[in-house]
Amino acid sequence: MDIEDLYELIPELICNKGCYECCKNFGVPSRTKIEDERLKKFLEEKGMKVGEAHGHTCPYLDETLAEGGCSIHPVRPLICRLYGTSPSYLCKMGIMPVRLLEEDEEEEIFHLYQKNFF
Ligand code: SF4
Ligand code: SF4
């Protein structure tokens, strides 16, 4: 299983335009070694620097981007993808994906994540 296969299990969420609430509250998102390697490769290819935590806002949030705020969107870690899409990480603004994950699906995703990508 590739990590992209795991990400595919998570429904797409379209956030409220201009809402970066999640990205402003958790600092640098947690990620596994595999996700960190993907991120570093992406940053290198884009000529970007590794982000450092300053307060609660994620260093990869860029509100000036036309298409949205995440400057590392293709390689954002699992936790960013789960916000708003799973029962444990419901959107504070009430935004829902087309289909919210069931609790057992969320558990299975974490199980596969820990088994294959730590
Ligand atoms: S999941 Fe909800 S609260 Fe978080 S950034 Fe998206 S719209 Fe905002
Ligand atoms: S990596 Fe992207 S999606 Fe995740 S918290 Fe940072 S800006 Fe938000």
Note down, in words, how this protein is organized:
With 118 residues, the chain is mainly alpha-helical. It has one domain (3-117). The protein contains 4 helices and no strands. The chain is globular. The model has no long low-confidence stretch (mean pLDDT 94). Residues 23, 29, 58, 60-61, 69-70, 72, 76, 80 line the site of one iron/sulfur cluster (SF4).
Give a brief description.
By secondary structure, this protein is an all-alpha fold.
Structure classification: mainly alpha
Total domains: 1
Bound molecules: iron/sulfur cluster
Number of strands: 0
State the order of secondary-structure elements, H for helix, E for strand.
HHHH
Give the amount of beta strand, in percent.
under 5%
Q: How many helix segments?
A: 4
Largest sheet: none
Low-pLDDT ranges: none
- Quote the distance from N terminus to C terminus: 13 Å
Gyration radius from CA atoms, angstroms:
14 Å
> What is the averaged pLDDT score?
94
* Residues in helices, as a percent range: 25-40%
Question: How would the global form be characterised?
Answer: globular
List the helices and strands and how they pair.
Blueprint: H1 3-8, H2 33-46, H3 78-82, H4 103-117
This protein binds iron/sulfur cluster (2 copies).
Residues 15-16, 19-22, 83-84, 91-93, 95 line the site of one iron/sulfur cluster (SF4).
